[in-house]
Amino acid sequence: MKAKQIHHPVLLSIVEEVDVVDPLSFYYGGSSFHGERFLWKDRDHTITLVGLGAAQILSTDEMQERFFTVENEWKRLIRESVVVTGDKWAGTGPLLFGGFSFDPLNEDSDEWSHFSTGSFQLPMFMLTKTGKMNYLTMNVICHPEDDERLFHERISLREELLANARKAIIPERPEWLGNRDVKPDEWKDSVQSVVKRLQQGEMDKVVLARKCEVAFDRRVSSDFVLDNLWKQQPDSFVFSFEREESCFIGATPERLVKKTGEEILSTCLAGSTARGDTLVSDEKLGEELLEDEKNRYEHQLVVDSIQRALKPFCDSLSIPSSPQLMKLKDIQHLYTPVIGRASEHTSLLNLVEKLHPTPALGGVPRDLAMHVIRQEEEMDRGLYAAPIGWIDAYGNGEYAVALRSGLLQGEKAYLYAGCGIVADSEPESEFKETQMKFRPMLRALGGTVHD
Which residues are catalytic? Predict the structure, then answer.
């Protein structure tokens, strides 16, 4: 065994093709790993990942060098790994799933205590679904003193998890007790305060977020919420990330960046309006959004920022001159796709660091907007509006921007939503926009949402 030869721990990763496995059933069937599960489904329906157990937790509380620290630790872990696989399929073998907090300089809150400025997990067992193919990865950290019993125990557990995934499990639904907006009047006052500063020319845009708290009669299971998100938000990135007694969960429309080989994809998403009750009214709202000066200005700030961030890392970059519409269940957005080809030695985490936070989540100029957010929000965003996703040992991966999301903790759920404030924003209108953005998660939690 390599660990005995080199006298320190070695990662062994074994990948096998398996029969069709339902991702949600695999997740539910791994309930014995509660607090160490994750699920990821991309919005293009090209890949789904489910991780059970933690072969290794990789976390950092670094403020300035967190991306560098995570990347270095990941490279160190996989450098001497032994990977047994038929081919280097993207999203299989050693894979790191997790996210970075929105703002490492902000004051931490108790509700986010289970997460760090960078929180990642190498799963013990992982299901990867790509198209019609299903792969199961087993990751084991082998120590020099280990004998073969550990390996055989893991093989038995692997078979047990596959058997559990074939059982019909219906997630338990807690009873909804009520929800409340946290400090709504103070938030509107903050919007007004920021508008005055924008009108004086201090900055171009600031994104302000707020919180909604939901109470239940018992502990909220991620199984129940995930089941609803999977059904209700098929065209979004759906994710669940458990850490101890907390779970960060959501369905976001926004890709931050994806890297497959040398190809890079990113998304400019800013400017929003409601969906219409009829096809005619829906199209009318969409056309008005495409022609709305405030929303087009807000959108262009994001396009310019993403172009500046990616250009130094790409040999080529393609961005359409005008946005199109992305229509989701509750909302429609202005959307511009970005396609590039990465320069040599460009890593996915390089790109994540340069892109986060985009003007759609922070503001313009970035540093000043972040300072204003710390002053005005009086809230710890945690992983909300931050990068969440995965990277494999081959450099492939994808990160989304964690919007339309919430934190499950005991008998409560904390939901987060924000909107871009510019010089002509009106507090009441912005408040209504955040109410609209809460709807996907309120519905997934079992609340009554009037469509």
Answer: 205, 254
